[in-house]
Amino acid sequence: MSVSPDHPRRVFGVREAAAAVLTATVALYIALVAFGNITDFDTNRQFVRHVLAMDTTFRDEDLMWRAITSRAWQDAAYVAIIVWETVAALVLIAATWLWLRRRDLRRARLLSSAGLLMLLLLFGAGFIAVGGEWFAMWQSDKWNGLDAAIRVVLLSGLALLTVHSTGDRSGPARSG
């Protein structure tokens, strides 16, 4: 069987397999999260509403000016989160497909990176920094999503590092 010169098969070793598995794992996870948020819309909408309203924090008057109490803005934020999660899931599913096809590992790496960075932005910058600190989510006993956000950041970060360990290693040898 000959391989088209336009789509040469690249070496698919342990690093590439690890990148494919981690990308697929994160894709499955975030697809299920997005699916759950769409099919059980109200559960996490309540979470977002309480975090943004800061109604279960210590209610320190020096912080409460940050609260967003408008239901319209709260719901808009929640829909934006769902859209972001859905797009990240689709990007990671496409990246998984490219890893498994083994024809264009550069594009697989690029799409994996894009999807994983989307999740790092959402869960790291969005949930940990903005939700956790700006809206003082860490103060809430009931509506605190920091542990879940940290898990996603760690898994996505590990996957991103693994994806980038698959870079082209066929460059010139270095003299030492």
UniProtKB/TrEMBL annotation:
Keywords: Membrane, Transmembrane, Transmembrane helix. InterPro entries: DUF2165_transmembrane (IPR018681). It holds the Pfam family DUF2165. The chain crosses the membrane at residues 12-35, 76-100, 112-136, 148-167. This is DUF2165 domain-containing protein.
